[in-house]
Amino acid sequence: MKGSSEVAELDPLQDLLAATARGDRSAFRRVYQLTASRLYPIALRLLSRRDAADEVLQEAFVLVWRKAAQYRADKGRPIAWMTTIVRNCAIDRLRSEAREPRNPEPWDEAAEAKADPSVSRLPPPDHSDPGLRKCLEALQENQRQAILLAYYHGLTHEELSARMEVPLGTVKSWVRRGLLQLRECLG
């Protein structure tokens, strides 16, 4: 098993986050430089608007600065921790916007998925690689739809249950089994 110093050598973000936790602004700047281009597409995919994605990315990096000391290497890689922060910020933004009246968009993929669940819901080609697309197509329709609505549209299990009109436990099973099949297919 690798020691924590060996893992840090493999992933410089661990050392940079530790320095950020100590208030090192240059380390934080380097964290931003190394990760912003990987994290921004996640916010943009969930929010579908550049202005909202920019704001969420900024909010997420403020949280990274404030919570850098909470990162635990034994829980996962730094980029996964930061991805979770960005995703949660984007979901919070979506939820707050859902509570506010807004103009209807010309095409609402999630609403269309509910209206016609037999239609395949794959991410746009510029947001997925061919291997992922192939693996998604291999899933059962209900699994694919639940995973895409959760990860590309930011729905929680409870929201999926309501939207797909099935029990919460069923949705959780679809997502869990689908993710296991995706992992196997991609691995």
List the helices and strands and how they pair.
Elements: H1 4-10, H2 12-21, H3 25-47, H4 50-67, H5 78-99, H6 109-115, H7 130-138, H8 141-151, H9 157-164, H10 168-186
Explain what you see.
- It is a single chain.
- The protein is mainly alpha-helical and 187 residues long.
- Helices cover 72% and strands 0% of the residues.
- It contains ten helices and no strands.
- The protein has helices at 4-10, 12-21, 25-47, 50-67, 78-99, 109-115, 130-138, 141-151, 157-164, 168-186.
- Helix 1 (4-10) crosses helix 2 (12-21), helix 4 (50-67) crosses helix 5 (78-99) and helix 7 (130-138) packs across helix 10 (168-186).
- The radius of gyration is 18 Å and the shape is globular.
- The two termini are 21 Å apart.
Count the E strands: 0
Estimate the helix proportion, in percent. over 70%
Order of helices and strands: HHHHHHHHHH
Envelope shape: globular
Number of helices: 10
Question: In terms of structural class, how would the helical and strand content be classed?
Answer: mainly alpha
Average pLDDT level: 78
Cα end-to-end separation: 21 Å
Work out the strand percent: under 5%
Q: Major sheet, described briefly?
A: none
Low-confidence stretches: 1-9, 101-128
Calculate Rg over CA atoms: 18 Å
